[in-house]
Structure formats: C-alpha cells, structure tokens
Design a protein that fits this description.
Blueprint (H helix, E strand, L loop, with lengths): L29 E2 L1 H10 L7 E4 L3 H5 L7 E2 L5 H11 L7 E4 L5 H11 L4 E4 L2 H7 L14
Parallel strand pairs: 1-5, 2-3, 2-4, 4-5
Helix pairs in contact: 3-4
Length: 144
C-alpha cells in the first residue's frame, strides 16, 4: 500500500478562461471585505482610495460601496478603452469590485496591463453584504 503525502497548501489560483486574462496557476492580489472597509473608514475624509465597481448598472444601483466609481466590465478591450474616463492615479492602488469576484479578476488583469496596481475584493459584493458592511444607492453616478 502506497502512502500519499498531503499536497502543499495552494495560493489563490485562477482558472484559465477567455475572459480572465490569466494563465493557469496565476495568483491575483485580493483584499477581504472588512480590510477594505477599514481602509475606507480611515481615508474617508481624504478621498484617497480608488474603488472601481465593474458590475452592470442595475447591480450598481442596487447597492454599492461608498466612493466607488462605476465602470461596467463586459470585455477587456471595452473596459480598457473607458479607463481614461475614470481619471485614475497610477501611483495609487485601485480596488476592484464585482458581485462574486469573477469580473473583478478580469478587470484587475486589464488594469495591470495598463500599469496600475489593482486589487480585487475577495468574494465581491457578496462577501461585503455577508459582512453586513455599509452600502449606498446613488443612481446619479451610473454610466451604463
């Protein structure tokens, strides 16, 4: 009888698919919901955080993180072409949010390809809501 050792612990790995702009085995920078909320609370007065919500307009209007800029992610090329409209600072990290952390992974890769340090919210808005963290509804900032 052969004994098999337990495999070593894995880092957050991404699958390989057409929309995530990654290779199998890649890792992605991520932040937990409570950590991001603490950053928001600490920098609320300065407005220094750059948060981009890549969900569709309906999802965004249903509740989003305070200070998040809306820029829907459908395909990498369309998202990249709209980045200049967000007026993001490449010297500061960009926190990327979607519903369940799938679109945000692709958006992080698109931002990285343009020289940004991008970090996605682990678990997306689902983890934010599970943590009962604050959301706002503001239809005036939606650009579908």
């Amino acid at each position: 009888m052969t004994s098999h050792a337990d495999p070593p612990p894995r880092k957050r790995q991404l699958g390989c698919c057409w929309w995530c702009l990654c290779s199998c085995g890649d890792t992605i920078p991520e932040i937990e919901a409570k950590e991001l909320n603490a950053l928001i609370e600490g920098k609320e007065q300065t407005g220094e955080l750059q948060i981009v919500d890549v969900r569709n307009g309906f999802e965004y209007r249903g509740g989003h993180i305070k200070g998040a800029r809306h820029c829907q992610f459908l395909m990498p090329c369309g998202f990249q072409s709209r980045l200049n409209l967000l007026e993001l600072n490449q010297d500061k990290p960009v926190y990327v949010i979607c519903l369940s952390a799938h679109r945000s992974i692709a958006a992080v890769r698109a931002l990285e390809s343009k020289g940004f340090q991008a970090i996605h919210l682990a678990g997306g808005m689902q983890s934010w809501r599970n943590g009962k963290l604050p959301e706002i509804r503001d239809e005036s900032k939606v650009k579908d």
